[in-house]
Specification:
By secondary structure, the chain is an all-beta fold. The chain has a single domain (1-81), classed as Sandwich (Immunoglobulin-like), CATH 2.60.40.10. Helix content is 0%, strand content 48%. A 5-stranded antiparallel beta sheet has the order 1-4-3-2-5, with no helix packed on it. The chain is globular. The chain starts with 24 loop residues before the first strand and ends in a 6-residue tail after the last strand.
C-alpha cells in the first residue's frame, strides 16, 4: 500500500507506549512517502509551558515510504505535539 501524505495517527504503530508514565521515554514515528522531498522533521511539544523541539531521524527506508522517529521523554500528564516537515523550499 502506498501512502500519499505524511502520516501519524497516535496508534501503536506510531507510538511505542500508549499509556506512558511521567519520566518514561517513548518512541514517536512518522511515515512519509519516499517521493516526498522532506529533508528534516521536528516534533514540537511543551514542557512547563515552554515550547521544545526534537529533530527526528530516519529509522527505516523502503521503496515507497520512509519512517522517521524520535525518543520523547514524557514530562507532563498530557503531552500535545505537532510535527514540522522541512524540505529544500518550505516548512509544513
Amino acid at each position: 500500500m502506498k501512502i500519499l501524505e505524511p502520516h501519524h495517527d497516535g496508534s501503536q504503530l506510531y507510538v511505542s507506549n500508549s499509556a506512558p508514565k511521567i519520566g518514561d521515554s517513548i518512541e514517536i514515528k512518522v511515515r512519509v512517502p519516499a517521493k516526498d522531498q522532506c529533508t528534516r522533521i521536528f516534533i514540537r511539544f511543551f514542557h512547563d509551558g515552554e515550547p521544545r523541539t526534537l529533530e527526528m531521524k530516519i529509522k527505516k527506508k523502503f521503496p515507497h515510504e520512509i519512517w522517521w522517529s524520535a525518543q520523547l521523554q514524557i514530562l507532563n500528564t498530557i503531552t500535545h505535539n505537532r510535527f514540522q516537515l522541512v524540505d529544500l523550499k518550505s516548512y509544513r
